């Protein structure tokens, strides 16, 4: 009987030692599992960010008084002119302009501007307008800043255009070629006389070059003296 008890105790002790000795292997396997998940994570492609100005000697935003013209956080006051301009000449390729949350350079909203293809047989002109500016007296302002996100794989040629409210004349800034990515654009309007800018009826941004159509995002229209 004593021999049986001793044998039982020996078997129980051996099983206990074996069980304790094998535990670290299971723990090691659990620790290795997260490394496989981390290795499979996708690396996001970075979006190019650039600064462009219609004056070659200007490489940064002006250090002057600034007025926010529209940051798209308070609603949408813009539209694409589309066929409403057909009576005045060639068909305009802008389709729509809507405030969205797809992207924003600041805040949570921006303007999504959609256009038809600007092929060789078209006007190549797409125009998005605002007739309800926070300020329509632009005298003393020399620059218009706007941040543009171009998600397409082709370039857009853009400018700023202004129509006054007296003689309904039209003037526009020099053009900028905006490549794919995010671009801070600084348009020069200093050549427009103050008597032209003191009663702005319509403020516009335009795409003018041949391209297969698509859409752009605009945010933070700002004026600088």
Give an account of the 3D structure.
With 225 residues, the protein is of the alpha+beta class. The chain has helices spanning 2-39, 194-197; strands spanning 49-53, 66-70, 78-80, 94-100, 110-115, 126-130, 143-150, 156-164, 170-172, 176-178, 181-188, 200-207, 214-224. The strands form two sheets. Strands 1, 2, 4, 5, 7, 11 and 13 form a seven-stranded mixed sheet that branches. Strands 3, 6, 8, 9, 10 and 12 form a six-stranded antiparallel sheet that branches. A hairpin with a 5-residue loop joins strand 8 and strand 9. It is globular. Residues 1-41 have low confidence and may be disordered.
In summary, what is this structure?
With 225 residues, the protein is an alpha+beta fold. 19% of the residues lie in helices and 36% in strands. The strands form two sheets. Strands 1, 2, 4, 5, 7, 11 and 13 form a seven-stranded mixed sheet that branches.
What share of the residues lie within helices? 10-25%
Beta-strand portion reads 35-45%
Calculate Rg over CA atoms: 31 Å
CA-based shape: globular
Secondary structure: number of strands: 13
- Main sheet attributes: strand count, strand direction, barrel closure: 7 strands, mixed
SS field, number of helical segments: 2
* Backbone structural class: alpha+beta
Span between N and C termini?
A: 106 Å
Q: Give the overall average pLDDT.
A: 86
* Low-confidence region ranges: 1-41
């Amino acid at each position: 009987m004593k021999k049986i008890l001793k044998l039982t105790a020996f078997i129980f002790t051996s099983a206990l030692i074996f069980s304790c000795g094998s535990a670290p292997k299971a723990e090691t396997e659990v620790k290795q599992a997260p490394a496989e998940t981390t290795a499979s994570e996708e690396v996001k492609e970075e979006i190019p960010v650039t600064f462009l100005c219609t004056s070659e000697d200007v490489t940064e935003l002006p250090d002057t008084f600034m007025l926010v013209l529209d940051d798209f956080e308070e609603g949408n006051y813009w539209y694409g002119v589309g066929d409403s301009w057909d009576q005045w000449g060639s068909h305009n390729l802008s389709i729509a302009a809507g405030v969205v949350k797809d992207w924003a350079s600041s805040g949570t909203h921006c303007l999504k501007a959609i256009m038809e293809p600007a092929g060789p047989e078209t006007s190549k002109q797409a125009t998005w307008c605002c007739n309800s500016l926070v300020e329509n007296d632009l005298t003393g302002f020399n620059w218009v800043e706007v941040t543009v996100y171009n998600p397409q794989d082709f370039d857009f040629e853009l400018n700023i255009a202004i129509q006054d409210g007296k003689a309904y004349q039209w003037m526009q800034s020099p053009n900028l070629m905006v490549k794919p990515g995010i671009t801070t654009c600084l348009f020069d309007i200093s050549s427009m006389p103050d008597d032209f800018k003191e009663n702005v009826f319509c403020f516009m941004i335009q795409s003018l070059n041949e391209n297969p159509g698509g859409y752009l995002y605009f945010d933070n229209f700002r004026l600088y003296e």
